[in-house]
Each structure stands twice: as structure tokens, then as C-alpha cells.
Amino acid sequence: MEEILATIAIALAATIFIVLSFSIYLTIRIFTGKFIRNKAYSPVHATVFDLLFHSDELYDYQTELARKKPTFRFLSPGQSEIFTADARNVEHILKTRFENYTKGHSSRENLADLLGRGIFAVDGDKWRQQRKLASFEFSTRVLRDFSCSVFRTNACKLVGFVSEFALSGKSFDAQDMLMRYTLESIFKVGFGVELKCLDEFSKEGEEFRACNVATSLRFIDPLWKLKRFLNIGSQARLKKSIDTTDKFVYRLITTKRKELAKEQNTAVTDDILSRFLVESEKDPENMNDKYLRDIILNFMIAGKDTTAASLSWFLYMLCKNPLVQEKILQEIRGVTSSHERTTDVNSFVENINEEALDRMQYLHAALSETLRLYPPVPVDMRCAENDDILADGHRVKRGDNVYYMAYAMGRMTYVWGQDAEEFKPERWLKDGVFQPESPFKFISFHAGPRICLGKDFAYRQMKIVSMVLLHFFRFKMADEKSNVRYKRMLTLHIEGGLHLHAIPRTSKRKVRVKKQKAKKAMEEILATISIALAVTIFIVLSFSIYLTIRIFTGKSRNDKEYSPVHATIFDLFFHNDKLYEYQTEIARKKPTYRFLSPGQSEIFTADPRNVEHILKTRFDNYSKGDNGRENLGDLLGHGIFTVDGEKWRQQRKLASFEFSTRVLRDFSCSVFRTNACKLVGVVSEFALSGKSFDAQEMFMRYALESIFKVGFGVELKCLDEYSKEGEEFMEAFDEGNVATSFRYIDPLWKLKRFLNIGSQSRLKKCIDTIDKFVYKLITTKREELAEEQNTAVREDILSRFLVVNEKDPEKMNDKYLRDIILNFMVAGKDTAAASLSWFMYMLFKNPLVQERIVQEIREVTSSDERTTDVNGFAKSISEEALNKMHYLHAALSETLRLYPIVPLNMRCAENDDILADGHRVKRGDNVYYMAYAMGRMTYIWGQDAEEFKPERWLKDGVFQPESPFKFISFHGGPRICLGKDFAYRQMKIVSMVLLHFFRLKMADEKSNVRYKRMLTLHIEGGLHLHAIPRTSI
Predict the structure, then answer these.
(1) At what angle do helices 455-472 and 174-191 cross, to 10 degrees?
(2) Measured CA distances, 924 to 613, 625, 631 (Å)
(3) Which range has the top average pLDDT, 102-116, 150-164, 669-683, 937-951?
């Protein structure tokens, strides 16, 4: 212990020394040689750390300073950071003394990881070379015509996208939509690729946006290099995003190069990348793939983010200024000779030619006014290569960075007049004609030799989109009181998106899409459909005959030695919604009966003697069977619920040892108590507000939270807050459960899987989501174990399995561990949550039972209605207290008798056999034991079998267990549930905590509660309850 304390003390002292030394070093670097009080230099406002503290409102902060001092300084280590809103200074650094002001080493470093040696990140000969090449490309008529064609095509898609929201009355995120539009357009124009991101999610676009945010942060974060070195925070995220982006871009270059090599068509050279690739063949050494990658990403910054962000702010301005919106509409209709009856999107778009675009003077002014107030690049920077004097007389030292603040300049009265902060398109017009301003005053497109080459390109794109959208829709804010804010990136985005409502302007409710099918094409389609229909009918008839032969041959249907035949397996399919009641009704007349299916009989039994026979007496003759393994295999893999023989024995032995440890029992109870306390917090909010809540959904979250902590050592926090990852996993797991359950009554499920349709298509998607989540969990847990930061990490079951995995990594690989996790999930999540839901339903239906349990809780825990401390009460639920809760144990068991968590289970006969009731079974037959039906049989439980009666389990107040082959909820024989005690402990703890603090009743007492068909018995539509506080909590 002394050694450990000494080590900690030394480490702490060393850390303090390093931090102090670094602080002193920074202080010296910041304050020396800066001429802080010399009036020849611009006034000092603060150190650069001040910018970091104002990160969220940076541009407004700079604007406020610029109102008092048009040029000012922040001190940083090594140099001054000079900020100016003076148009004279902007002209000085961008034109007059252009050669003296470069991107600078600092800026190049900030941008290099993302933009490499692209045109936005370089100076000198490299810049001149790229500028010359790009200048030629942007001046070609081919590119102009090609780009306008792409902009029009994608604008038509936008109308279809928006019209869906307009017709439904729902709001949509216009910024996200425009980001997708510009990404789609820029990839087509720039690289000849159709991403189709207007139709679906684009991962590449999201990763590029993440790169943008992290790179932007470097300009105000003096510690970004340290973060990059340690690979933490924003710089770790940037590295991952750049890796993904690079992989995509290099693949794009390779594909495009192959297309050019094939020379399949001439249109492939319309796009800019193809034209650069042609140029690269002349100089392959300099214009290599890395060079082309940098060109692509710089072009992306120029063409995607700037246009999308500008259009987003433009629509925001139109919502704030509806008269401007209407004035633009009138101009559109005047220029295009359209009106509200012009409903054909494609025809309207064809009218937007070069002449029409040039005549849109007021729209051009409104777009420019938006760019004045919300410039795409709100602040830009140049570095002084030599000492200099700015146009306003302030000195600049070599190495100083000079920032020109476009966002602030647009709001300066000394630049734009007293109405500078008003949105006023008229300031750009004279006699209705647009009048451009000095590029050093209106700096949105840069100025001087580096003025933006794509300026006209951008205006054309924004005009086309604006004209199409505003002709067909009127826009307003979804929440007119919302406070729109910007997000700090290299380009000016709207924080949280721009949520709008679109109201159709045209006379038809839905915009017509131009007809693309002529009469001849329709005839071809009808002929194809006829042939397909004939082939389908032939296949269906052939398959039906085949099924009939397979179903009815070799089944000894009239032989009394075999159980009586009720119907074919298709009969179950038609009774899917009330399957268990249907089976129960049959079992009342025939305890054992058959359904015929292709290849074998499906035998159903509610006879406890038969259950004992297949689960214990002839255990080795009854396996999961090929059918059972196939049904469950895609979801549960080779887990303990799907395998037999050696694989089952191996997992059973390992799991049996884990479940028998005191460590797991103590750890799990601690987790159950902690999460039960959280449940009280959740329920109390509803109780105090008088609102109802879905108890089943709440229990699912509770069980998921608990099982992930106990089973995998992970806190999902799905009780405290919304967990997107946890929600997606839970939804996928539940839907996968439903689709897997459906396989037992759907004889065509294999065909559906092959064709990837219906329930089997949904199952495939669910499993992809599940696998992604689970494999990430395994990787994370393995990394935690490798670090061995604490010993508590080994309390959970997955960690303990991973330790065993190290002894036999070949057999216990990630796939094996994935299967263990999902089987454990079925055992631990759904069972506990569903059982507790049915239990609460039973307590509502039997209020006297609910009150009797409350009395038992208070007696055992020595509590009363004055016991309001949730944590204190939970701690009183010890192992001894749980063991004394006999009536609660009986009520839970009675619930499980009537609503068994697995209502139907199956075994397959490996060889011919005779059941305990005398009926023969053929090899390959499946034998189902019906737990749901058994709980309702008078020949098992007496005449009161369908009554909820906890007393049937008690003798002199003490719980009396029943035969596991009669009460089959926890299975029986060698495969009896290992987690039985684990489950009872969890259910008791939750029940005791909730029932002590609340009385529960149905939200709608007349509602008809039904089950949902899954592998486990859930309540259809959830269980909606009201909670009435019992204590003063």
C-alpha cells in the first residue's frame, strides 16, 4: 500500500510540474514581443483562449467587438491573431499586397489533414498550377451546360421529395434536404457519380460533414495538436472520418479511371474529375491519386457545403420575410410565363434557361442579401510573410495571422449603412437591375487573384433550386418561435437543421410528374406481366401438388396407434392471431393431436406424462431437430437454445458454473435494486402528472438495462435517457423475434428468405442491426479487459466468457460469443419483462391479491406508508427478505402458469418412439408441448384451472413447488432453466419496489388485453397503466 501511495504521489507531482511548466511556457510565448501597448499596432482584446470560451457564439462575439474596433488583436503563442472588418484592409491583403499574404503555416497545418494540397490549402506555384487548370475548366461551355442540366434534374427530384411532406402536412429538415441535393449534384457534375442520396441516407456525406466540424475547431483550439498526438476528442473523430472519406474517394478515382480506360461513351468526360484524369495522364508523377483526392475534397467544400448552407439561410430569410418570398414568386412567373396551373415539374424546369436565369434580378438580389448576412465562410485568414502596414495604418509583424470577418462585415453600419442588419434585397437594385458591390465589401466569394471561380456556377445552382421550389411551394417555419442559430464549421450551417412546412401553390394537390411511358412501352409491360403471371400460376400449381403429396403420404392418418390428425399445418397459419387459444381449445378435447406438414407430422401435446417422456425419460431421443435449428439459426446461431449434443453440454457446463457463483448472484441483485430505484423515478413522474404509461415498454427498458449490465457490463442508460443505439438494437431484436416465431407456422418461410421478401426480408435487416451492435460490444469489452483498468469489469458474464475464450480462441470466436449474448438476451430480457407485464395485468384484474402482496412486503421489510426513501427501501430487500416473500412467489408462479413466457416449445424425434400416453411417434416428427394450453387444462390443474389463484401454490403460507413437467414455464429435465432463481429474484425485487410505492390500475379498464405472437409471450400494443402513489414520495 505504501508503494502504491508513493507511486501515486510521484505521478501527481510530475503531472502538476508538467502542467505548470507548460502554462509558464504558454504565458511567455503569448505575452512577449507583441507590442501590446504600442498604438502603431491594432489594439489587443484578449488571448486566443478567449475565442475558445465563446466558441458557440463566436461570430456574434467578433461582430460585437468589430462594432467598437474595426481591427483588433488576440494574442496567441508565437504571433498575434489580427481580426478586421475594414473593407480597405481586406483589399490590402487580398489584392494590393497579395504576394505578402499567404495561407500561412498555421492555416496549412489546420487544413492539411482534410484538404491536403488542394487549391484552398496551398500558395505559390502549386496554387497557380491548380488555379490555371480549374479556371480553364470553369470557363468551358460544356461544363456550364452539363451542370445546369444536372441542377434541373435534381431540382425536379426535390419537388417530389417536398411534395410528400406538403401533402402529409408534416415538417421536414430543409438543410438536410439541400445538403443531400448539393451532394448529389456536386458528385454528378464533379465526378460523374450518382450517389442517390436524395432517395436514401449517405454515409459519405455525414463523414465529410464530421471532417468539416473537427477541422473548423482547430482554428480556435490551441491544444488541437496535442489532441491529435494523443488521438482523443475532436481529432480522434477527425482521423476516423478522414479514413472513411479517403477510402471512398480513392475508390471513386479508381472506378472513374477504369471507366475512362474502357471509353464506353463520350459523356463520361463531361464531369470535372474525368477531365482532370485526362490531364493527369500528361503528368502522372505530380498529378497522382493523392493530388486528385485533394482536388476532389476541395471541390466538395466549394460546391456542396457553401451552396446548401446558403440556400438554407435563404429559405430561413424568406420565412422571416414573406413579402420577399411572394415578390420572388411574381418574378418567377413573369420570367417563365407560368402560373398556378403550371403543375408539370419537368415542363416548368425546361423553361429555366440561361436567359431566364439572367432575368431573375430580384432573386439574384435576395440571394446576395442572404450571403451578405450569412456568408458561407464567415471568417477567413491570411498570414503575413513579411512586416507590413495595413490600409488603416496598423502594423503587422511577419508571421501574424490576419482574419477578415465576412459575417461581422455584413452587419457593420460603417460598411453597409444604418440598415446593415436588415434583410433588404432592394439595396442591390437600381431601376430593377442588380448592381454588384465591391468584392472587398461583399466578401462572400472572396476577392483579388483568388476570387471564387465558381461564383456564377453557385448563383446558377441556387437560382434554379429557388425558382423550382418557390413556384410549387410556399414555405414557413415549423416552429415560428424557434431560435435559429449557426453551427461552427468551416462553412456556416444552421444548428439542428431548418425545419419547415411546405404549402402547395399549384392548383392540384399533388404535382404531376411527366409521363415517361408511351403506348408501345405499355403494351410491352402488359405482355411481360401476362407471361410472368402464367409462369407464376404454373409454379404455384406445381408447388401445391407437390405439397399435397408430401403432406398426405406416409403419415398413417387413420392408424389409431398414432395421435389423431386435426388438420394440415396451413390451418395454424390461418389462426395465427389467436394461435394459443386455438391450440387450447383442441387440447381440451384431445390432449395429444397432430397437424400434417410436408415430410413429417407436427404433434402437439398438453399431457404432462408426454412432456416428462420427451424432456427427461427419453431425453437423448428428442433434439432441437433440423427444423428447430433452421427456424432459430439465423437469429440465435449456435447458442444454448438451438444446439444439442456436445455443443449443448459444453455451453451448459460453462453457463452452469457461472450461474452458481455467489459473485454473479450478489452482482445481479445489486444491479436489479439500482435499476428498480430508477423505475420508481420513471413511474413517479407519470403518477404525479396523472398520465398513463406503457408498463411493458418500461419493463423492456428495465430488463434490457439490467441484462446488459449483468450480462455484458455495459450501461445503456435506456431508463434515464434516449439511447439511439439501444433503441435500434431493442427494436431490431423484438422484430427479429416476431419474424423468427412466424417460421414455425409458415411453411413458405424458406422461399421468402430466398426471395428476400416479407417477414424474412425484415428479419435479415434486423439481424444486420443486431450483429453490428453485438460485435461492437464484444470488441469494446475485449479492449476493456486488455487494459485491466479495474477488477469490477470481470463481474459480468461476457467478461467471464471472454476470459475462458482466451484458453480456446479457435472454438470460442466472436461468432460463438455473439450467439451466447443473444441466447442470454432471450433468456434474460424478454422473459423477465414480459412476465412482469402479465403479472401487473393480473394484479389489476385481482386487486385483493395486489393488496395482500403489499401487506407481505411491509411485514417482511418492516416498512409502512411513511417509508419514502427509495434507495433505503431497496437496500432492505436482502436475500433473506426475498426468501420470505412466499405469497409474492406464489402470485408470480400463478402468472407464469397462465402466461408462460415460452407458450410453445418443440423437440424432434431422432428415432421412432412411443409416448407415455401410448401414441406412436415417427423419426423426424416434431413434438410440441403447449405450456399456454397446459396452464388452462382442468385435467392438470382442476376445475379452477383458468382462475388466477396464488393460494394453489401455498400450504400453511409456505410456497410449494409443482412438478416441472406440469408447471413447464422453466422447462424440465436436463435442460431445465439455469436462470430460474435469477429470474425470480429479479421479478421479486422489481415487484416489491413498485408495489410498495404505487398502486397500479389499467388506464382503460374496458380494454381487451391480447398477446402478440413471438418466441416469447408479449402483450399486443403494450400494457397501459395508471400509477397511484401509496407513499408521500
Answers:
(1) 130
(2) 17, 8, 15
(3) 937-951
